[in-house]
Specification:
single chain, about 240 residues, mainly beta, six-stranded antiparallel β-sheet, four-stranded antiparallel β-sheet, 1 helix, disordered N terminus
């Protein structure tokens, strides 16, 4: 379910040349970026800020013989020149239970970082609620930071902004959020899996629902991991 977008499953050279202001410098031979087996990266989500490309990714630590996703944390790759194959690797930038007091450890699935018009960065993260009576405990929380590298803090300490209970009842698995801040300042979030997709407008605070949840129909073949972007006026 969460093996979309692996960056690190084929042989390639990897050189860790020591810390770079909290991270490590990675000199890769090409794709994949990380390939020595110490860090497997799932669900890559790019974001560009200024002259730097960042890639948020999960980390699957499942050992051989375990048929499950053991994903306890998110990590970050960044570069100012992808062609140089020189990257900064920041492992363990966030863990669900440290981001959100209401979240259980593990299940650090496909999140996304976006930059808001206020200049701050918002991290939309699917996690499991620790104390929930919902049939499916997956929910979406939001953390905020002044940098894609963090440190991150809960932007909505009252709890998740989306679950099977909030902002309105639903019966889907609420994971894989993707967010667009449009040119006119409006903010939209989409999420879902197993062929079921929903969307909603958010207020300018990046966490409050501005409109009702919309059921998105007609997407033949959709399974999970939606992504919304705008290019040359086309969504």
């Amino acid at each position: 379910m969460k093996s979309i977008g692996w960056l690190a499953m084929a042989p390639a050279l990897l050189l860790l040349t020591g810390p770079a202001a909290g991270g490590q410098t990675v000199q890769s031979a090409g794709n994949p970026i990380l390939a020595d087996g110490r860090y497997y990266t799932t669900d890559p989500a790019p974001v560009v800020d200024g002259d730097t490309l960042y890639i948020l990714a999960g980390r699957d630590e499942a050992p051989d013989g375990v048929n499950d996703f053991i994903m306890n944390e998110w990590q970050l790759l960044s570069t100012q020149d992808p062609a140089s194959r020189r990257w900064r690797h920041d492992p363990g930038i966030a863990r669900p239970e440290r981001l959100f007091a209401w979240a259980s450890p593990g299940r650090a699935y496909a999140g996304q970082i976006v930059k808001a018009r206020n200049g701050r960065f918002y991290f939309y993260a699917p996690v499991e609620e620790r104390n929930s009576d919902a049939r499916d405990r997956f929910a979406i929380g939001v953390a905020v930071s002044d940098s894609p590298r963090g440190p991150w803090k809960d932007a909505h300490p009252a709890g998740p902004i989306i679950s099977q209970r909030v902002p309105e009842s639903n019966d889907i698995q609420n994971i894989d959020p993707t967010v667009l801040v449009d040119e006119d300042g409006r903010v939209f979030i989409y999420w879902g899996t197993f062929g079921r997709l929903r969307g909603m407008e958010l207020a300018s605070d990046m966490v409050s629902a501005k409109g009702p949840e919309q059921v998105i129909e007609g997407l033949t073949g959709f399974f999970e991991a939606p992504w919304i972007m705008k290019r040359k006026g086309v969504y």
